[in-house]
Amino acid sequence: MKIIGEKFDAGFLDSAKNKVPIVEIPLNKNCRLFIKREDLIHPQISGNKFWKLHFNVKNYLETKPNFPKIITFGGAFSNHIFAVSALGKGLNIETLGIIRGDELEKTWQENPTLKRANLNGMNFRFVTRQDYRDKQKLAENLQTEFSEALIIPEGGTNELAVEGVKFMLNAETQQFNYLCCAVGTGGTVAGISKFAEPHQKVLGFKAVKDNSLEQKIFELSGQKNFELIDASEKGYGKISDENVKFINEFYAKFNIPLEPIYTSKMFRKIFELIESNYFSENSKILAFHTGGLQGIAAANDKLKRQRKKSIEFQLKNMAEKHYRNCNLCEAICGIEITHENGKILKIEGDKADPFSRGHICPKAVALQDIYEDRNRLVEPVRKTANGWQEISWEEAFDEIASKIGEIQTRFGRDSVAVYQGNPSVHNLGTMLNSRELLKSLRTKNNFSATSVDQLPHHFASQLMLGHPFLIPIPDIDHTDFFLILGGNPLASNGSLMTSPDVKNRLEAIEKRGKVVVIDPRKTETAAFASEHFFIKPATDAYFLLAIINTLFAENLVNLGRLAEFTDSVKILREVSNEFTPEKAENLTGISADEIKRITREFAKSETAICYGR
Question: Which strands make up the sheet holding 32-36, listed edge to edge?
Fold first, then answer.
């Protein structure tokens, strides 16, 4: 924990001091307004939260807890909850959020703030609003349960938080006559009040209607140099149309983002005070931008549900990562999707996926192109005389069901055909439900990617093993001769073979034996292999028949314990008689001598595998 503590102190504090510019808001009034961009300190740890958490966590880590854990409190859209989750992720410390409102337990994944906090690793406990009011009792019970945990109060406000706020003030802030900040739990304004210069007046703009705040701030700061101004408008968390309009206009004019709960209400009130000549002439006003921009996503969700105008600007450095599986082939590799404001930034392999372990192929990367394709249908459409008309899903399903019935009644059940692509075939929901749909349709015209992709595998499995999906999986960890025809497992993660960590497993084979690739192209696997033979396209069957011919001709066939399960050997021998290596040489482009050598080496190995995709 010493390393984490040092990392926290150096990286968390010192680097932040260089990221907080002060910029002027041009007004053409008898006073000057400036903004200190605390929101730029960290993309996730909101401005003032950065400083309020500093000494709380730094002092805690210095105690060297054996099982470090941070517990705190907040509502569904709490900047503090999100900031603590991000801090915990950065320091590799467990975090637990005590969330107000037990009704959220079933829907928290629909909440942008809680969802992103959970992605940062935070776990939640949801408590009733009545129990939440007694936070002292909650904290005592939690401290008993987690004796080594750091329990931080709601909003992060305590004496250590007030001490941390001193870093928001420096030599540059001393030139101002007024220091302004939004007020929630009071910790930030208390810190500014405590460390302000004697000539400075501190203005706190209340986002909540709480008459106890003034006394609380005085007890924390020991100063009376502050004034609290009501900026709560319609109430805490309420977002008016005027507020949204102000945010959008402020951003368009000054290129500075504000959020709707704290900073926008503060600036609206500051502008009102300037218009009413509240500030003395030629005074310099400094407003602290305390961040909280993560809350915009939740605010816009709420506004969208209310069919109201949303906050328009796009946030920077608010990218999220979602973890999914690529279902474009049977390998089902794990993928990491980085997106921001509904736009995919990149798709990478998920290194934490226990199966694919970070592997990704071009098809998965191209999912972004599919998602962003301008011609991609996102709603059902119906062809009409005037063009394509968008309809609802319910209407589409009803019309399809009705017309399928009419068509089959009129033309027979085989007049309807079904095509299933890989994304549906490899989707659990479709796998569970499509079978019943196909049974009810009773059409023989059933097509899929398998029709042109791997049908021979299924056909052979049906004939040999009794079921089309009983496809043999080669045991590549125990082979010393791996013959690959047309397969490229280094690119496909094994595809039908589906073997995680293919590269290391192929390297292990080469250490104890040989990997031989037959392929018209020099693929990634071919370039890696012990030997690579170029073959003329579509001649693999001749190559395999020449191998079978050589096995019989040189008496290399030994069925062993499989003899009692094998029939038609005589027929196979007769079929292969005319496909000698010499004949195959002309057809495949691989010399007869090489075909014979490959066959002998394959037969000599007791653990040989022939794999084709």
Answer: 22-25, 32-36, 284-288, 178-183, 201-206, 226-230
- Total-model pTM: 0.55
Residue (of 114, 106, 33) closest to 78 by Cα position: 114
Q: Alpha-carbon distance 320 to 341, whole Å?
A: 9
Instruction: Give the chain's count of helices (H) and strands (E).
Output: 26, 21
Which residues are CB-neighbours of 186 under 8 A, at least 6 positions away? Answer: 155, 157, 204, 213, 216, 217, 220
Q: Which CATH number fits domain 47-159: 3.40.50.2000, 3.30.930.20, 3.40.50.1100, 1.10.3720.10?
A: 3.40.50.1100
Give the other-Cβ count within 10 Å of 567's Cβ.
9
Q: What's 273-318 look like in SS3?
A: HHHCCCCCCCCEEEEECCCCHHHHHHHHHHHHHCCCCCCCCCCCCC
Between the CA of residue 301 and those of 113, 240, 266, 551, what are the distances in Å? 11, 14, 22, 69
Residues in contact with 91: Cβ distance below 8 Å, sequence separation at least 6, in sequence order: 4, 7, 8, 57, 61
Give the pair of three-digit tokens for residue 594. Answer: 């090489």
Residue that is written with structure tokens 């945010």 in the block: 247
Among candidate residues 191, 183, 190, the one with its CA nearest the CA of residue 209: 183
**What does the pLDDT look like over 36-65, one tens digit per residue?**
999 888 877 878 898 999 999 999 999 889
